[in-house]
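Hey team,

Filing this mostly as a record. A colleague (T.K.) asked me to run one chain through the structure pipeline before their review meeting, and I want the input and output archived in the tracker in case anyone asks later how it was produced. No errors, nothing strange. Just documentation.

Input sequence:
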Amino acid sequence: MVAALFIQRAFDPETQLYFGCVVVTVIISIVLHELAHGWAAIWQGDDTPRIAGHMTPDPMVHMGGMSLLMLALVGMAFGAMPVNPRNFRSRYGDALVSAAGPAMNFLLAMVAQIILGVWLAQVGLATEGPGRNAQILLLVFAYTNIALGIFNLLPVPPLDGSAILGNFVPAYKRWMDSLGNPMFLFFILFIVLMNAPFQYTPFGIAMQFGVRFTSLLDPEAGRAYIELIRLTF
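Output structure:
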């Protein structure tokens, strides 16, 4: 049912724009997220990403067909970057490489948020046409990347936060390793987030941040931002 509800947006003239914005945003964000892991790993002395052929902007390399299919069906996807922590030159290389992905998401979000906030403050809400479409894309791009950054920092495997915490707290890493297949923790997290009040989920926090950040730039821009959220969702 969830899959049908998302994929049907591609065929509904009123929601085609939103569908396209989500697809474009998720692909760009995941590719750059994984490339950030790769750049950080190479900086740390691990050439695995380059040897494996993953230092490329090709979404098929980072996401694969299954992830892209999931994106089209349910609006969610995943990526991967091969690294070898044994090659890292720093004691905290694993944490640095793992943190690079969410850091990229926050950077992308901040760029999109600033552009949209200044646009709304200077010009206001576009009424129609390419201007409105661009503002919606910036909105989706900003809040999605904030949400992705927050989500990936949660200390639950296979999310980046688990590697970061495990690097600083060896007891936590040993506990994760003792679980054999800790993926069940991720499914528990997923169920919790699905049933949590929206304002406490990564997407809810991202949306609240966007409203407050834009309002700080200009109160009128903040009100325009809220109206843009209403028009988009």
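Quick notes for T.K.: Residues 147 and 203 are 5 Å apart (CA to CA). Residues 93-122 form the longest helix (30 residues).
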